[in-house]
Design a protein that fits this description.
The chain contains three helices and ten strands; from the N terminus they run H-H-E-E-E-E-E-E-E-E-E-E-H. It is an alpha+beta fold and 160 residues long. The protein is globular and about 45 Å long.
């Protein structure tokens, strides 16, 4: 009886980790939307700086010739929890990053660099995280379950 109650009351570890993964994917998605919108509204360039070694990201605003951290509270440096990480970051026409720093740029003219971000965790099977695709013309982010490559994106969009 106690075992049955424990199963009903306490969520499984796997579902808790999946929930953490979804929350972090949503945070990245919200950060992209905000950086894109602020870039257009403020008529200035923004970028999201991803540090894949530290597993952190931060929005930066262009001031003069340099980029400085954005002052918007929602875009301050955010580090992923230890159990969740960005496994791949690919800006179209640039190499795939799994380590180091990479940037996704937003123009005040409503353009952003198309990018693919694969986020996963240690509990899920390989390729069972989420892939976020940043659309260049709209700044919209599409989220797909699993690891999705650019070459597979067209087929997925046909089925939507």
């Amino acid at each position: 009886m106690i075992g049955l109650i424990a199963i009903l009351v306490f969520p499984s570890f796997g579902s808790l980790e999946l929930s953490r993964l979804k929350v972090q994917a949503s945070r990245i998605q919200a950060g992209v939307h905000l950086a894109y919108n602020l870039s257009v509204m403020e008529k200035t360039n923004y970028r999201l700086a991803f540090d894949l070694d530290e597993q952190c990201w931060v929005a930066e605003k262009k001031e003069g010739p340099a980029y400085v951290p954005a002052t918007n509270e929602l875009l301050l440096k955010h580090c992923l929890p230890e159990s969740v990480w960005i496994d791949e970051l690919e800006v179209l026409d640039r190499e795939l990053f799994r380590a180091g720093k990479e940037y996704v740029y937003f123009s005040p003219f409503g353009y952003s660099e198309p990018a693919r971000i694969y986020i996963t965790n240690e509990v899920n099977e390989r390729d069972s995280g989420y892939t976020l695709f940043l659309q260049s013309a709209t700044g919209e982010i599409k989220v797909y379950e699993g690891r999705v490559e650019y070459k597979d994106l067209e087929d997925l969009q046909k089925n939507e």
